[in-house]
Write a structure and sequence with these properties.
Layout (H helix, E strand, L loop, with lengths): L9 H12 L6 E5 L6 H13 L13 H6 L7 E4 L17 H10 L5 H7 L12 H10 L9 E6 L6 H12 L5 E7 L7 H5 L2 E4 L5 H9 L9 H8 L3 H8 L4 H18 L2 H11 L4 H21 L11 H10 L8 H16 L4 H15 L3
Parallel strand pairs: 1-4, 1-5, 2-3, 3-4
Helix pairs in contact: 1-2, 6-7, 9-10, 10-11, 12-13, 12-14, 12-17, 13-17, 14-16, 16-17
Organism: Mangrovibacterium marinum
Protein name: DNA polymerase-3 subunit delta
InterPro entries: DNA_pol_HolB, DNA_Rep/Repair_Clamp_Loader, P-loop_NTPase
């Protein structure tokens, strides 16, 4: 991964290049940014630049032995940790059990989400995490001598998914790191990391991608021909992954919109038998997709409240969503916006905690029945 391949984030890239050139490299760094911001891509480019033996014009050369191995994510001094899931094949899984899938995923597109990752490895109905046994692997790998580079580099993607025992062992390693070791933590929810780890890492806040930068990047894609890339960039709110989804004729948002419309119509109409059928379908689609729907529904409830203000600049909905909102938005008001949002947020939390989806969706739907007519 080259710095030049990363969309936007110019100031961050320039700062990274300068600090590396001046040998001011912090041994523990946290790249914190929202989904689709490119924080993983930045960590990869940072690691490659640190290891490059022939740095040129503020970027990796791409031709030295180190860069060639980074191009395959196969450098012996580059290590990865990421959430995995238990399965009949891997009862006590660690990241290396999925390393081939990880390389394919990252090399295809480094802007993917946790949902994309679990779908790719065929476990989207499981709640993946970084288990305790991963800490033993981290210790083993980083206590080895460097094979080729000056630094051993450990990229930890989604460290907020770490088991408590793993977090504690990682903290000890960050406090007493092996010589010439770099920890690059890539997080979308830094507040979920234990405070002691956050406080010991140099923080880089990675913002959502600038809208103009996103438009320019989308215009370079063949599939963007004939599409309104400015509207897509606006709707995606700086999330490159979401922008790519919106480019697809059939994207997950279309499914989510249909399910949201059904939920609101059925709860308002108090059509309980049809509502239970809706619950039954949502209970079968996998936990990551369930959370994706709930997050979408939460955003739509808030967007419908804003829609009532009649200010187009504040609205982040496409034409189909706005067509529904033109009729539905009056039912979202100051009396029910907060309680409905709280029900959706509570459902996201319960799904994340491996609760029973049918019970969670049933309870949520019945509560919205009471709230939607306020």
């Amino acid at each position: 991964m080259f710095f030049r391949d990363i969309i936007g984030q110019k100031a961050i890239k320039e700062r990274f290049i300068q600090t590396i050139n001046e040998s001011r490299i912090s041994h523990a760094q946290l790249f914190a940014g929202p989904e689709g911001s490119g924080n993983l891509a930045l960590a990869l480019a940072y690691a490659q630049y640190v290891s490059c033996t022939n740095k040129q014009n503020g970027d990796s050369c791409g031709t030295c032995p180190s860069c060639k191995k980074y191009a395959r994510l196969a450098h012996p001094d580059l290590h990865f940790v990421y959430p995995v899931v238990k399965s009949p094949k891997f009862k006590d899984p660690v990241s290396t059990d999925y390393i081939e899938e990880w390389r394919k995923m990252v090399l295809h597109d480094a802007y993917f989400s946790l949902e994309d990752w679990f779908t790719f490895i065929g476990t989207d109905n499981a709640q993946g995490m970084i288990y305790a046994q991963e800490s033993d692997e981290i210790i083993r790998k980083l206590n080895l001598k460097s094979y080729e580079s000056e630094y051993k580099i450990m990229i930890i993607w989604m460290p907020e998914k770490m088991n408590q025992a793993c977090s504690n062992k990682l903290l000890k390693m960050i406090e007493e790191p092996p010589s010439k070791t770099l920890f690059l933590l890539v997080s979308e929810s830094e507040e979920q990391l234990i405070t002691t780890i956050r406080s010991r890492c140099q923080l880089t806040k990675v913002p959502a991608i600038d809208e103009a930068e996103l438009v320019a990047s989308l215009n370079e894609l063949p599939e963007s021909s004939g599409t309104n890339t400015e509207q897509i960039a606006h709707l995606s709110r700086g999330n490159y992954r979401r922008a790519l989804q919106l480019l697809k004729p059939e994207n997950q948002d279309r499914y989510n919109l249909e399910k949201f419309k059904e939920l609101m119509r059925l709860t308002y109409g108090r059509k309980f038998l049809e509502l239970f059928t809706w619950v039954a379908e949502l209970s079968t689609i996998g936990r990551e997709r369930q959370k994706s729907f709930l997050q979408y529904a939460l955003a739509q409830v808030r967007e419908n409240f804003v829609f009532n203000l009649k200010n187009p600049k504040l609205v982040y909905m496409d034409e189909e969503e706005q067509a529904f909102s033109s009729r539905f938005s009056p039912f979202i008001n100051e009396r029910n916006i907060m309680p409905i949002s709280e029900e959706l947020e509570k459902s996201i939390l319960h799904i994340s905690m491996n609760g029973n989806p049918r019970i969670i969706f049933t309870d949520m739907a019945l509560r919205i029945v009471k709230l939607i007519r306020r």
